[in-house]
Design brief:
This protein is α+β, with helices and mostly antiparallel strands. About 45% of the residues lie in helices and about 20% in strands.
Amino acid sequence: MKRETKNQRADIVNSVLSYIYLYIDTDLNVAELAHMNALSPHHLHRIFKEETGRNLFETIKSIRLQKAASLLLTNKYATISQIARMCGYSSQTSFIKAFKERFDTTPKVWKNGAYLLYSKKNIESSKSASASNRDFAGTIPKIVKTSPIRAAYIRHSGYDISIKNSWNRLYAWSLENGISENARQIGFHHDNPTITPLSECAYIAAIEIDKDIQPHGTVAYFEIPSSLCAVFSISGKYGDVLRFMQYVYQIWLPGSGFEAKTLPPYAIYRKNHFLNDTGEFDLEFYLPISVL
């Protein structure tokens, strides 16, 4: 396959996934996604499957359910019906059926505590997180309204040490394109890794860029929207991040007086554990929120 064709296909997949994550609360129409990229639905399905190894319909369904599973435990005053709508389900019945197929329990039972055992097993599947004894209890964020950030990025499937590969590629791209050494490095967590199988987590390695830079292909670009965020300043070693997220999603957020938005949280690294040999990080974690 020619590089130009490969880049065009990567642009299509990036465009589709960005749209899905941004509008996951709507009735996503595959015909509309195809039209936006000047393709037939059949052609879009084929390109998406060949480039990602995943079915487009199943990808949309998986993203909806992972968002719902996280919101059910963070947005404790929202009803099952409200959570279903936030994740693009027009029917509560179809949402409950799909959720039970995915998590082997109903949204109500999950919300009332079933997520704790699921989360425990998920974190124990990570050797580094299992080895971490960090306790983030009492960590309090500052509340800020963020400004938009334009960033170049590479998508990565899975949350494990292999993320280093994507960061190394992005860093090499930034050197080739004269990106400032002081440009902010940003890690996006589209999924809550405390309740999403780590092999299925969608992660994005991103770096801030000027508006005159127009990347495409496997390195794409987007604008991180302005949002009200809870910002946590933390440091530690690889493995501590999952413990921190467990605290944020399961302890701090449910009792905070805030609710999570469907926008993904992200980390701005002062020290990036994926780009150093020590495995140490120093970062600010931005969690998009709304007031109850």
